[in-house]
Amino acid sequence: MNSKERNELIDALLAGDISEPDLLRLEAELSIDPAARKAYFDRVSLSQALAEEAKSFHAKQAPAVTTHRSFWMQWRPLAAAAAVLLGLAIWWLPSPGIRKAGIVAHFGALQECRWVDVKTVNAQGDGVHRGQRVELSSGRADLVFASGAVVTLLGPCIFEVESANGGFLLLGQIKTVAATPDSKGFTVRTRTARVVDLGTEFVTSASADGQSRVEVTSGEVNVHLAGVSEPQRLRKGDTLSVEAGSAQVMARIESGDETPAFRFPTLEPPSDRDAADQSQGRASIRVVKGTLAVTHSDGSAPPQALLDGHAQTRPDSPKESVYFANNVDGMLLLDLGRTISIGRVNSYSWHQNGTFADQRVRAVQKFRLYGFAGDQPPPTDGRLTESGWTLIARVNSDEFFRVAAPSDRPAQQACSITGAHGPVGRYRFLLWELQGTQGPNTTDTNPTFYGEIDVHEQK
Fold first, then answer.
1. How many Å apart are CA 416 and CA 240, to the nearest integer?
2. Which residues pair with 141 in a beta bridge?
3. pLDDT < 50 positions in the chain
4. Beta-bridge mates of residue 171
5. CA distance 93 to 95
């Protein structure tokens, strides 16, 4: 099957009008050809992105409550595509015993559930078989496994039960509680990670483009990545995200001790010996989009303050922080002066309002990090990846810490971006696309108080 014919079959599947013979041909092609599977993943991801963009556009034009039927019509092609993907996981993702029949779990509590397939009827107590896909469009659904583990699906979500002690998360978010002796070792797999429980409670998320995120709310888990012998050990409060791609870029965020020493559980404090430090005489940083905050009494420090080897000395210190004006999404461009192999990129923030202790909105780290290896940086307007920039990582620390109320947000935060197999990549230019966060009791978005950025070279 040539690529044109394969893409036509994938498009027919996404449109919901593929014939049974063509579906079988497509499944056979995907089961034996890695290149075909990659093309399939890319096309499904693009389809979902377009659907979400269209949904956002129509919501802005004519806000309305989504009906069950309209939701199904929007998601049906993607659900069909996901079904093929999950079915093919049997062939190219190891899963001993997945084809054996047998009930290994049952439905627990169901809250306002709507299923992707309108013909689906699930009730509390119904059995769930090995290999069964649970496709939830909205609401919450508990799966109680024979091992005692409980998995809560948060719609929209597609999850396949693989055994009495594990499953595969294709899309969406699940919460896993494995509190019984038999449930130790409960495993949640995504396209980019395998999360193994060590007696814990954790949240796993998977996006259509392959990004996975794991957050531990109690106990410990091991996160295994393809081709990496040693797992990442996560404990209570730890969160890790993994991007798709050969580098398997990871982002880890931790809360600090809220002192000028910037001490964290595992991450290092700000450094004056990294490749981006101004003492090295090579790196420079500048604003390429947006305007830094300026007030009569105080305002943002210049961008160079991010490269001076230290962060803020107190929690509410605008003059020691680099931040943009309210309601402004800005960009910072770092030139390392030469192309290097980057081992890790760390960013540090600290903010707690001196009068209102719960106001820590300027501590949030929310950005996309891009890289480029040439002698001159590409344009920074329009779609960055189309201009030549490589998307390295996406970070939103409020999602990492699952912030529901202002008091949930750590005042001092560090984010470390690393590669599972070694370097993040070889780059000369790094571009931060920064976003603000809406504060309490206001419609304004407040930018983050960043204190330091470190780029560590991997020799």
1. 10
2. 110, 153
3. 49-50, 52-79, 83-101
4. 158
5. 6
Q: How far apart are CA 35 and CA 37, in angstroms?
A: 5
- Residue 322: DSSP 8-state: B
List pLDDT tens digits, range 125-168. 999 999 999 999 999 999 999 999 999 999 999 999 999 999 99
Containing 45, the helix (H) or strand (E) segment is helix 34-61
Beta strands in 164-300, from DSSP E residues, in sequence order: 166-178, 187-189, 194-197, 200-206, 212-218, 220-224, 232-235, 239-242, 249-255, 284-289
CB 428 within 8 A of CB 341: no
User: And the tokens for 58?
Assistant: 């129509």
Q: What confidence tens digit (pLDDT) does each residue in 170-211 have? A: 999 999 999 999 999 999 999 889 999 998 899 999 988 788
- What single-letter amino acid sits at 116? V
Indicate yes or no: pTM above 0.70: no
Who's near 213: CB < 8 A, 6+ residues apart?
203, 204, 205, 206, 239, 240, 241, 242, 399, 400
Q: How far is CA 184 from CA 143, 148, 163, 165, 221, in A?
A: 16, 9, 14, 9, 10
For residues 265 and 238, what is the distance between their CA atoms, to the nearest angstrom?
9
Q: What is the DSSP letter of 435?
A: -
Sign of the alpha-carbon dihedral angle for 163, 169, 174, 176:
positive
CA angle 384, 386, 391 (to 5 degrees): 50
The residues that bridge with 360 in the sheet, in sequence order, are none
